[in-house]
Structure formats: C-alpha cells, structure tokens
Write a structure and sequence with these properties.
Layout: E1 6-10, E2 19-25, H1 29-36, E3 47-52, E4 59-68, E5 79-85, H2 88-99, E6 104-106, H3 111-118, H4 124-135, H5 139-149, H6 152-176, H7 181-206, H8 211-217, E7 219-224, H9 231-239, E8 257-263, E9 266-272, H10 282-297, E10 300-306, E11 325-330, E12 347-349, H11 358-372, H12 384-402, H13 408-426, H14 432-442
Helix pairs in contact: 4-5, 6-7, 6-13, 6-14, 7-12, 12-13
Length: 446
Amino acid sequence: MTSRTTIFALSTAPGRAGVAVIRISGPNAGMALNVMTSKRPKPREAAGRKIIDPTTGELLDRGIVLWFPAPKSFTGEDAAELHLHGSIAVVRAVLDALALLPDCRLAEPGEFARRAFDNGKIDLTQAEGLADLIDAETEGQRRQALRQSQGALSELYEEWRQTLIRAAGLVEASIDFTDEADVAEDAFSQGRAIIEDLSRRIGSHLQDNRRGEILRSGFHVVLAGPPNVGKSSLLNALARREAAIVSEEAGTTRDVIEVRMDLAGLPVVISDTAGIRETQAAVEREGIRRTVARANEADLVIWLTDLTAPETSLPKDLRAMADRTLLVVNKIDLAPQDSQPVLPDDMIAISVRTGAGLDLLQDRLAAIARERMAPDETPALTQDRHRRLLEAAMEDLSAFLQGSPHETELRAEDLRRASIAIGKITGRIDVEDVLDQIFSRFCIGK
C-alpha cells in the first residue's frame, strides 16, 4: 500500500439503503471532486452537488459532498466523501467512474485506517479500538471500544514507555559517569526506583482477571448436566428463539451449540452441550468429551438438573470448575403445591416450561458477568497481543531488577528490550528517544 495512489471505497454496508457513503483518500482526492462534481465545496462543509461521470458527462446522482484537505482528515491525506442515494446501481456507477480516474484504485481492507496509522493520526491500539467499535454488539462493548479508539490505552502505554525511556536515560548516564562512582551509583539507583514502581503498575494491569478481553469477546457460559434435564429448552428460553433441538430422547444434543446474547448490555455467549452420563455410544461419548472441554474453558458453568434428581455434586471431570459453577434445578412446576422440595441456598429453582425463576436466573447471570467485567478507572487489556507484549516487557523488567547492578550495559539492554515491547503495542518505537533523554537531562559533553 502506498500513499502515492488515491484510494476509494464504499464505507457503508453494501446493499440497498437510504444513504451510501463513498470515501476517497489520497493526492488525487481533490481532482476527483473537481471532475465529478460541479464545484468543490469549502473544507469540512457539506454541500449538495451533482455527481457526474467524468468520461461521459452523464449525471449519476445528486448527493452531499464533503472535502477534507490534508492534514485535517481521518487519514491525514486529502480526503473526500460522497453521500449518495443508497441503491446498488448508483453505488456501482460511481465506483466505476472513480476507477477510471488517474492513479485511483479501490481500497484494500483496512487501508484507510492503515494510512491513518502511517500518517500518525492513530496508533495501533486506537486502530484496534476502532475495529472493535465497528464490531460492538452490546453497550458494554461500545463503551470499551470507544474509550480505546479515543486513546485511553494509548495514553497509558505511552506514559509507561516514556517512564522506561527516562529510567533508561539514567542507567545509560551511569555508564558515562563511571569515573565518578557516586554520580553513577545515584543515577542507577534513581533508574531502579522508577522501574520498581513501573513493574508494580504493569503487574497490576496484567492481573485484571481478563475483564477487558472477556468484555470484548463475550462472557462464556456453558450449560452442563445430565441428559433430559432441559438444557436445550433453557438455551432456547434465554435466546428467545429455537436455537437448539428439543427432544425427550436422551443424547439428542451431540455437539456444542452457541448463542450470543446481550444481557444487560454485556455480551454473553451461552453454549448448550451434550448431557453427561455413562454411555457406550462413540458419537455421544465424543459429545460428552467436548462438553467437559468447553466447560473447563468457560467463565461460568450452569450445572442444570431437574426436580426428580436435583444433583448438587459435580462429576469428577468438572470439579475443577466448582468455584465457577452456578447450580440450577429445572422442572419445579412438577412439584406438588403442598410439598415443595428443600433445596440448597445457592441453587436457583426454575421452570423452563412456565418461565418461573427465569428472570431471577438472568439477573444472577448478569450480576456474575458484571462482576467479572467490572469497570475500573484504569483502561483494561482488550487484546491478547497487548497481554503477550506486556508479559515480555515484565520479563525484561524482572531481569533488570534481579540482575547485577555492576553489569550496567546488560541492565540498559533489559530496559531497551522492555521499551521496544511496549512500543510495539502502540506502534511507537524510536531508539533515539533514549539518547534524547540523556542529552536533555545530563548535558553530556557540556
């Protein structure tokens, strides 16, 4: 991808709609407006214009045109937008006309955001936040993605990177003042104190129970239990549609069935699984194996039994999930009115058939999910990529803190590696920053 070419693309969803937006970016964006409209509008002011085929002069549509001269545009380049009537024919005709202009081509996936990054308009975490904002399905996801796209994580990680650079400057300076032992020792001690504090902050950020990643991908709940206790019926009731086949025949569910839902603004993924029992059927045994595997990866397991046999003890394969299990008993409508069963205090009683207790169950699910994804003043980790790079940085900081202070060059290398790891998160990596810090603080050579 090169900024010497001008790119264009349909930015709204394809298909028939009330309005379609075509975005143009690059050195020939202004030229495209000149030849396809009667008059280029003033910067950042919407204007009604005829959209004309530059080769034939044919009127293609009447729409709204916007002009964003560089550098005040999303990409940092000259950019324009054509707001058209959203018919398939109009969009196709305008795209075809743009393709005939010199050095203009259809954009590749993500190329507008890539150019914004290349031109310093956004960093990598903001680009990831923008992608998450586009994919957001719930209110919680929208808020997190919007915060990230506006630079909340960028500011945090850039502060940490600058702190590392400052500490590295002190350590590097201690090398230059080796002939003055007290100055060198003082500079190194200052750098070490900075790293001790930074290490604690990054460690706390990593120990967040993966709340940001869960909010981004969904809180995973697995419905598990013996056959024929109503797992598939419960899934359908929670999803409010027929997502799973319901049958009185044991072993009907053989594979994992997932349903994504919005629960009080939080993304929840509920999986219906095969009933757990002793069986010789190879296919059913494979289904049970998948149930156990999915349950052990879940954020929460709903262990569902029915009133005829309210089992409160988990099978041995799921006992490791005991602290992440919610006990639920179904079919309470079958209990005689004058003889209600005595259930454990932590067990929720429901009837999928009548709907009794379902509101309580959903409220409990929402409360558990909200607690796991509890908001915090500090922006949360949202990507596995961020976590892996921060863990790599922590290894380097640990090497610095545990290493010999007399091997100053090696300790400086530890900090350089940590700085690069954090810089990779946002895409800001500049080895000259350390030198700038040294010169500004210690006036070396003066």
